[in-house]
Design brief:
Blueprint (H helix, E strand, L loop, with lengths): L10 H21 L5 H15 L9 H18 L2 H9 L1 H25 L4 H8 L4 H10 L5 H23 L6 H14 L9 H17 L5 H16 L9 H16 L10 H30 L3 H8 L4 H10 L4 H41 L2
Helix pairs in contact: 1-2, 2-12, 3-11, 3-12, 4-16, 5-6, 5-13, 5-16, 6-8, 7-8, 8-13, 10-11, 13-14, 14-15, 14-16, 15-16
Length: about 375
């Protein structure tokens, strides 16, 4: 008897179905008053729709990229001369905090390698925060590394952090809700009409900046390009720049959250229970370590608890910046710490890891070869 296959939907209808699922998630999470509903709602509903209901969902990466571009524009508005001077003042602490966070990831990966059957190199690459695309690319280059494990660890950490951090920020200990009220009023005051006619110039410039950054192989190019463009406009001209309306920021959250929800694919794992347990525990430990480092940061610079936590949270820069905007945290500080970590991982950590892992693989091959003779 021939197996019955589920009929495949066309790409267009799969996208329309995905859009409906995402909007439904955003509306429901708005109705029940969850933090950043238009990021979490689409993310959760896309995850459940693809993994539990088994819907044939599709969310093109290009849509996610343009959602990130909108966030990059918003961050660029916050990078004034005073904000950049403050970031430069904190560079030594940014380096120290980044090294401590990477050190915690290395320790976690080492302990996990001793308690499980997974190898240390794969666990290490899967644990480094803030560089999902870079770490996956590194895993693809190193044939000895378990690419499926690395991708799952990175994606699980990202999803857990994107889901957990908003509730931490809005908890009574951090009280991001107070800042969110003021920020919501400011966002509502901003209108679509205030964007014109300047947006007719800024929009194409930001898109061009994103494409140039991608051609130059910058990390998170669709965020970094618009950030640089808007920052340059701020610093070199007297042109008017208007804040983005809340509805446009909600759309960007949906564009990003929908993509994140489809990234998790546990069906590709070989040892599902062990891998999922490891991914969740290591992510929880990383969040706890970030909380500790954020407390230190808060004491050093008298930052708000929300700003400190979002600066240290090992999630994606776009998601943390969205949360910073929602709770009226210091967006320039949050983006400064997140950007520094991304660049440090992209230019330094990736190269060091590649050399280290190549050396470890060579030593392992030498031991295997010597044991045969």
């Amino acid at each position: 008897m021939e197996l019955m296959h589920k009929p495949s939907l066309s790409a267009f209808f799969r996208f329309i179905l995905s859009l409906c699922v995402s909007v439904l998630g955003g509306l429901l999470f708005t109705a029940i008053h969850t933090p950043i509903p238009w990021l979490l709602g689409p993310m959760v509903f896309m995850l459940l729709g693809s993994q539990v209901v088994k819907l044939q969902l599709l969310w093109p990466t290009s849509i996610r990229d343009y959602g990130i571009l909108i966030v990059g524009y918003s961050i660029g508005l916050s990078l004034t001369a005073d904000a950049l001077q403050g970031i430069l003042h904190q560079l030594p602490v940014m380096l120290l905090m980044t090294l401590l966070l990477i050190g915690l990831c290395t320790l976690t990966a080492y302990i996990a390698s001793k308690l499980t059957d997974f190898d240390f190199p794969s666990l290490l690459v899967g644990s480094i925060p803030g560089g999902l695309s870079q770490m996956v690319s590194l895993a693809e280059e190193m044939k000895s590394i378990n690419l499926t494990l690395v991708t799952f660890l990175q994606v699980t950490r990202l999803i857990l952090i994107v889901f957990c951090v908003p509730f931490l920020v809005f908890s009574p200990w951090i009280d991001g809700a107070a800042g969110a009220t003021a920020d919501t009023q400011a966002a509502q005051a901003a209108s679509w009409m205030n964007l014109f006619p300047e947006i007719l110039l800024y929009g194409p410039l930001c898109v061009g900046g994103a494409w140039v950054a991608r051609k130059l192989r910058f990390p998170t190019a669709f965020m970094l390009g618009p950030m640089i463009v808007m920052c340059a406009i701020h610093l070199t001209t007297t042109m008017q720049t208007s804040p983005l309306p809340s509805s446009l920021l909600n759309i960007s959250q949906l564009m990003i959250g929908s993509h994140v929800g489809l990234m998790l694919r546990p069906q590709h794992l070989q040892r599902k229970t062990q891998t999922i347990t490891l991914a969740v525990l290591s992510s929880v430990l990383l969040i706890a370590g970030s909380l500790g480092l954020s407390y230190v940061l808060m004491q050093l610079f008298s930052l708000s608890a929300a700003t400190s936590l979002l600066s240290m949270a090992p999630g994606g820069m776009d998601q943390m910046s969205i949360m910073a905007h929602e709770v009226n945290a210091n967006l320039s500080v949050v983006s400064g710490y997140q950007l520094f970590r991304i660049l440090f991982i992209f230019f330094i950590v990736s190269s060091v890891l590649k050399l280290l892992l190549t050396h470890m693989l060579k030593k392992k091959e030498e031991r295997v070869h010597s044991s045969r003779f």
